[in-house]
Amino acid sequence: MRVVIQRVKNASVVINGKVKGQIGQGLLILLGVEPADTLEDAEWLCGKIVRLRIFDDPGGVMNLAVTDVHGEILVISQFTLHASTKKGNRPSYIRAARPEVAIPLYDHFIRTLQGLMGTPVQSGDFGALMQVALVNDGPVTILIDSRNKE
Q1: Percent of the chain whose pLDDT exceeds 90
Q2: Does the annotation count 25 as an active-site position?
Q3: Fewer CB within 10 Å, N- or C-terminus of the chain?
Q4: Is the pTM of this model over 0.85?
C-alpha cells in the first residue's frame, strides 16, 4: 500500500456535484493498493498514520499526532499512486490492484483508522470520478509505502 498524507487546514471530496466528505484540520490521505497488499499492510499504515507527529505543538515544533490535535481524516482511493512511467509517456497502472482486491482493503483501511481515531473517518467512493479540494497546511506532504516500512 502506498499513501500520500497531507496535513490540511480543510479538505473535501465532491462526487457528481455533491459533497461526499469534508474535514477541517487534519489529514487528507490518498491511498493506493497493490495486488500483494494485505490486511497487515493496512493495519501497519493506519497505526503509523495516527501516530505520525506532524502537527505543531505550542512551541511551533512538529511534535503532535492527528489525535493530539483532535484532527479529522479524509481518505481517497488513488490507483494512480502505482503508475509506472518507465516506458513511454502514457502511465501504466498494471501495478494497481483490481477492484476485487482493492475495495476490501480500502474498506478495512478506513475501518481500522476509525477504530484507532475513535471518530468517523470521511472518504470518497472507490472508483468514482472525484474532485478533491484541500488547503495544505505547511505545506506538509508525506509519502509512505508499506513495502518499505519507512
Answers
A1: 93
A2: no
A3: C
A4: yes
